[in-house]
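Q: I have 169 residues here and want to know how they pack in 3D. Can you give me a structure?
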Amino acid sequence: MGKLIDKYASENPNFAFELNELKQKYKSENQIETDDLFSTINLLRQQLDESRYEKNRSVQQAISSKNDEINQFKRSITELRGQLEKLQFEKQEAVQKAISSASLEIKELKSLTSSLRDELDNLKFTKKEAVQRAILGSADEIEQLKESTQNLRIELEKVIKKYEEKLIK
């Protein structure tokens, strides 16, 4: 395509002139854009340097602050260890009292459990007797219901037969 443009430019001087102007315009625009890009790069480098400086300063401040905090934590840990040892002693004392109290309570609960077990056995026996009585009563009632059902079935069959006879007539 370049040969075609060169041929046309050599044949038409106006085209060659316009082509040269267009080339100069694009070169000028490209140079302006290049200058802007270099300017932006320099500005970004400067901002990056400032950012690095600020970051390093912040890191140093954070390290200093954390060292102070670590020392405060060490003092707190020492104090808390003393309190913990005191609480452990009090806890052991309370455990011993609780064990003694629990032993007495266990004895009382064993006694209560034994009496409740006896009462439960009596209730079970009474319940079994009541269930047996209910089963016997239910058996009679079931037998009566079966007879009633059988009689109703026979009556229903008679009614159906009469109804079918009426329909046939």
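Q: Anything worth noting?
A: The chain has one domain: 2-168. The mean pLDDT is 90.
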